[in-house]
Please model this.
Amino acid sequence: MGNERSGLATTKAPFKVGIVGGGVAGATAALKMAGLGIETLLIEAGASLVSGPPICHLHAGGNLYREISDEQCIALLEQSIATVRAYPHSVNRRPTVIAIPTTDAGEPDAILSRLALLTEHYRTLIENDPNNAVLGDPDQYYTLYDKEDLVRLAQRPLPENPQTPDDWLIPVAKFMPHDKFKFPLVVVQEYGLSVFRLAATADLGLAQSPHCHVYLNQKVTGLEPSQESWTIRTHDADGNAHSHHVDFLINACGFRTGVLDDFVSFPRQRWVEYKAAYVAHWPSQPGVWPEVIVHGERGTPQGMAQLTPYAQGFIQLHGMSQDITLFEGGLVSSTSESAQPNLPEHMVVKADGGWEWGEIRQRTERAISHFSQWLPEFEHAEVGGKPLCGAQQIPGSDPSLRAADATFEGDRYARVELVKASSALQAADRILAHCESNGWVSLPAGWKTPSLALTASLEQNAIVEKAKQIARGRDFPEALALPFPHE
Model:
């Protein structure tokens, strides 16, 4: 219970929300609701929060995706800005270089009109609320570089602490052959995310809330609806049975969302796609690098290549080909018999961490080789650890959809269906608005502000130390948990 003046929600009667799934969707919903004083129960089958598919981007403006609509790009920009405001200590503040190789059928002009549209929308968002200026000055949201600019920048020394778009582009100009690309190249303020600092933020924030109870290592075995409540049946790691009673249920099970839908016979059309990103180590890395995206046709041998830098020379890699990030048979649809798409068993095993070392080495080396086409020095990189992997769900019938949030079945069941992590806050807000419209809660003024009361007082040092602990516990290099580049 609370009151509007305290910044908490009020309820006419006891009201408890149950969230199944402690990934970015479930953890964000729990942080938002418990921060408003709503009694919240969070159930996660794993040993820690936010351990799903690889997260490395805000995807602000959808700049990686040439095939999606302007409407989705604007939605992703708004959601990304909200995510920076909600999780400021999880952001790696460095720009992204977008390059189109000479081998690709696309032309740079195709994305320039979209970048102009996004710049103006970003400017409007700042005019509406100056706190939205989290991606820098809108006049510098993106910068274009011709071949002559790269020739000029290649003569400059590598900066130790890059600040300007020019600074960030210097290593690209020095070490990526200019004749491999169409011009202009784009430097856009597309930032990174550390999944480990995001997990740490969620863990520390929820631990200090009297309104949230987190149950780890509990797998849901059944759901029992009644007229105005739900019973959630679970088993813990020791096989003990538990029952949890809640007034409203949020299904935030990620790529297993259909499992809960099937428990209660809620039909749903969706796709599930298994993907992996690879961890390389580049000890001889010259300079401090931006992220670099080399566009390509998805699913072909020349699929998009993505180099995401972290601290201490560690690099996360995507290569959107069947030999690297994508997998044969890895995109599957639901059926009329089941809302849960049926991934091949070996991919489910991988999603739960069951990789063989031989395949880790083979696919990581393929990813290194793929990017070395455009960055010859990168051939000296080596395998840096096990992959960041998982499956993402895509609601509906369009597998290219990238902006999605929450849907409902009846009054007391919501499902969160994120394609991108940056949509999590909007999904939580949509569910809160639904609860208020049904009269269960009365929300305080300003509740839609993209901030999380439970994490606002957390200090970066505490988050980083917790993130390092989480990375070690999951067998990943601590460097993936560290701020980048020099925060």
Residues 1-5 have pLDDT under 50 and may be disordered. The first strand starts at residue 10 and ends at 11.
